Amino acid sequence: MELAVVNINGKETGRKVKLNDSIFGIEPNDHAIYLDTRQYMANQRQGTHKAKERGEVEASTRKIKRQKGTGTARAGSLKNPVFRGGGRIFGPRPRYYGFKLNRKVKELARKSALSYKASSNNIIIVEDFSLEAPKTKEMVKMEANLNIADKKSLFVLPEQNKNIYLSARNTQGVEVVTASELNTYEIMKASTLVLVESAIDVLQATFEN
Questions:
Q1: Helix or strand (DSSP H, E) at 192
Q2: Helix ranges, the chain (H)
Q3: Does 109 share its domain with 65?
Q4: Residue 54, domain extent
Q5: Edge-to-edge, what's the strand order for the sheet holding 123-126?
């Protein structure tokens, strides 16, 4: 699959880049995408939720009323879960939500997500660029030139670039990642994938390794 390379002004440079069919042209596996996305979202959870149970509530331990003769259920402590302020029955406890996923499944998921974007013509190749200083208006202007101003877009860079990251930070609907950090969740969430030209080599080398 070949795509034309454009500059930040949205004009074609006259060059084309061939995308590797083993990465951008496979038969997508929806279940792999589901598993990888589920693992990513599970890893975002802190799992620090906690409720006090009966043995952890601080309250008087005196017996509230006599055992028999009241006509009501017996109760021995204010910590009883049936009373207001008592412990919670089977309350949440701190836990880790992440789970193991094989490397090959994660790799298949990313290839499937990239293939979906390629088949729906939602990939744009931009020649290498840099910003002299962090400027949000430069990123907004670039979005307008690429006709993605009203879409969720994901810019994939070959390496960290602080000025580009800071320029996109306050731009609604724009995310910036490096090729080595690209994950299935972000690919699927974006409407348009904007690949910086030199990031393609990094991306292909990542899958080859």
A1: strand 192-196
A2: 21-24, 30-43, 103-119, 136-145, 162-169, 184-189, 197-208
A3: no
A4: 46-96
A5: 12-18, 2-6, 123-126, 192-196, 153-157, 174-178
Same-domain check for residues 184 and 199: yes
Q: In terms of domains, do 80 and 137 share one? A: no
How many Å apart are CA 9 and CA 144, to the nearest integer? 9
End-of-domain residue from the set 96, 115, 131: 96
Say yes or no: 37 and 139 in one domain: yes
pLDDT tens series, the chain, 209 aa = 888 888 988 888 888 888 888 999 999 999 999 999 999 999 999 999 999 999 899 988 889 889 999 999 988 889 999 898 899 999 999 999 999 999 999 999 999 999 999 999 999 999 998 888 899 999 999 999 998 988 899 999 999 989 999 999 888 889 999 998 999 999 999 999 999 999 998 988 888 76
80 with 15, same domain: the answer is no
- Report the CATH number at residue 191: 3.40.1370.10
Handedness of CA 91, 93, 97, 99 (dihedral sign): negative
8 Å CB contact between 167 and 98 = no
22: which residues sit within 8 A by CB, 6+ positions away? 111, 207
Total number of domains constituting the chain: 2
Q: What DSSP element (H or E) covers 196?
A: strand 192-196
User: If we measure between CA atoms, which residue out of 155, 153, 173, 152 comes closest to residue 164?
Assistant: 155
